[in-house]
Write a structure and sequence with these properties.
Strand order of the largest sheet: 2-1-3-4-5-6-7
Radius of gyration: 23 Å
Number of strands: 18
Low-confidence stretches: none
Structural class: alpha/beta
CATH architecture of the largest domain: Alpha-Beta Horseshoe
Number of domains: 2
CATH superfamily of the largest domain: tm_1862 like domain
Strand content: 5-15%
Mean pLDDT: 94
CATH class of the largest domain: Alpha Beta
CATH topology of the largest domain: pyruvate-formate lyase- activating enzyme
Shape: globular
């Protein structure tokens, strides 16, 4: 069967990410004997419409799949939703051909019934897609109904029907990114060659969907040798500048990441690595030294708060002492570390917010050290169905029971004074070039210009490591807040009002 798989993700700024999951599915379908073509629309030179039309006309697919990576950018101060454009892609496909349309990807797994209805697709694949999609293709080929295929959702006479997904062991699979997509545009924008070492997350964060609808809460780990073999093969075939480990938590379990890095050190070649998510626990001098020797030069770290009270509220599973000790250890290195802080969760106050800001001011500033920290502060917590935070937000009246979950929905602690909170964050950003605020995402429209300069000068990626230098330049020239909204607190209040909230956070507010 001829199968066309489409990457619908159009985020082509400095944070562009190759469609790793889609490539896993493409590899599995090809191994099952299907003729597979991947259409990557991220850097499409033609219009989206003409690219899709051309692929359908020339390839004549018998089944089409669309991958939905994210439904929005999870940023209350610069909200962008991706679903309208993806819906237009799906509707264009429906106008061009009558072949079955299948939707999948992490974004689709968050709210499968709603996404399926919006895109008017025939089927949706939830969670792990490789085995499910191959079984779905077999059902389509035989003309049999796929109701019993694990992880497949569809509409029938009784409404939406979803067979629970089967989360099988995650080993013996390699996606071979370079076979399915052109990785060079991602490299030019500062992106990396993505590697996944495990699936599942056993953390219990109240706001997160990874351990529920996307990958489950049971760790499914690939052998270290298998992972490093994949790195070695990709290194020799495609010569990427950087490899990125995209596990939700790279160093959990700690012993697996240690085994992985020790296996890298046994190989005769050298490569540069980064990691999408690192846990503050056990991030001591010995571990960081091992990371450096293995080839890591940067990573993202996600404490979400430096307040003991808020860490317990978010159920992060570590303490403020862990966060402080991690910062002290990182500051003795030459790493680039991107710290993420989430402001506004249950029981957040202006005092707990200040604790996190003071942590950045006191412990993350460069002060002549070789380390480069970026402290990214998001205000407003995105709320998803099925999470503990969804129950809390609904019970506190942040949105009505019949709300459309596809629209961005937010939680902000009613113990916060929003006007004061915005002032606190702006003051920290004016004092500390390491502090990066939600509205700063607006400047990513200049990504291609910056990336061209970085690439020409031979700067190593990922390019987010230069955010601090950009902020420092902005502070010294007076242009740091050029793209700051005129009324940040008003933006927050208006978002809450539009989602149906009428509590005291917006009392007296007039849009």
């Amino acid at each position: 069967m001829r199968v066309l798989l489409i990457n619908s993700n159009r985020k082509h700024d400095l944070l562009a990410a190759p469609p790793l999951g889609l490539c896993y599915v493409a590899e599995a379908a090809a191994a099952a004997g299907h003729q597979v073509k991947v259409l990557d629309l991220c850097f499409a030179l033609k219009s989206v419409q003409s690219s899709i039309e051309n692929a359908i006309r020339t390839f004549q697919p018998e089944t089409i799949g669309i991958s939905v990576r994210n439904i929005d950018n999870v940023n209350m101060l610069h909200p962008v939703t991706y679903l309208p454009e993806i819906a237009e892609m799906a509707h264009s496909i429906k106008r061009l051909t009558r072949v079955p349309l299948v939707v999948g990807g992490s974004g689709a797994s968050l709210m499968p019934a709603n996404v399926l209805e919006l895109l008017a697709a025939d089927f949706i694949v939830v969670s792990d897609g490789e085995e499910t999609f191959v079984k779905l293709l077999a059902s389509i080929e035989k003309g049999e109904p796929p109701e019993a295929v694990p992880g497949v959702g569809m509409m029938n006479g009784d409404g939406f029907h979803l067979t629970p997904p089967l989360l099988s062991e995650f080993r013996g699979r390699t996606p071979d990114l370079g076979r399915w997509i052109d990785t060079k545009p991602y490299e030019k924008i500062g992106g990396s060659y993505n590697i996944q070492t495990k699936r599942g997350c056993r953390q219990g964060c109240i706001y997160c969907t990874y351990n529920q609808s996307i990958e489950g809460n049971r760790l499914r780990i690939r052998p270290a040798v298998e992972v490093v073999d994949e790195v070695e093969e990709a290194l020799h075939k495609y010569r990427p500048k950087t490899f990125e480990f995209v596990d939700s938590v790279f160093n959990d379990p700690l012993e697996h990441s240690v085994e992985l890095m020790e296996e890298i050190l046994r190989r005769p070649w050298k490569a540069e690595f980064t990691a999408m998510g690192v846990h503050p626990s056990n991030l001591d001098k010995g571990y960081l030294d091992l990371m450096w020797r293995a080839g890591f030069r940067s990573f993202m770290i996600t404490p979400e708060s430096a307040s003991e009270h808020m860490l317990r509220s978010y159920r992060k599973g570590f303490s403020r002492d862990d966060v402080v000790m991690a910062a002290e250890a990182i500051n003795q290195t030459a790493f680039s570390a991107w710290w993420f802080f989430m402001i506004g969760g249950p029981d957040e106050t202006n005092e707990t917010l200040q604790e996190s800001l003071d942590f950045a001011l006191d412990r993350l500033q460069k002060n002549g050290r070789a380390v480069t920290n970026v402290a990214h502060f998001f205000i407003g917590v995105r709320v998803y169905p099925g999470t503990k935070l969804w129950e809390i937000a609904r019970n506190e009246g942040f949105f009505p029971d019949l709300v459309d979950p596809l629209q961005p929905l937010w939680y902000l602690s009613e113990k916060l004074d929003l006007d004061r909170a915005v002032g606190q964050m702006n003051r920290a950003a004016s004092l500390c070039p390491e502090v990066y605020l939600g509205f700063d995402e607006r400047v990513l429209v200049f990504s291609k210009i910056a990336a061209t300069v970085f690439d020409f000068l031979g700067f190593p990626g990922p390019y987010w490591r230069y955010f601090r230098a950009a902020n420092q330049f902005g502070l010294s020239t007076g242009i740091r807040f050029m793209y700051r909204p005129a009324d940040m607190a008003g933006m927050l209040k208006d978002s809450l009002r539009r989602q149906g909230y009428s509590g005291h956070l917006i009392q007296g507010y007039t849009p």
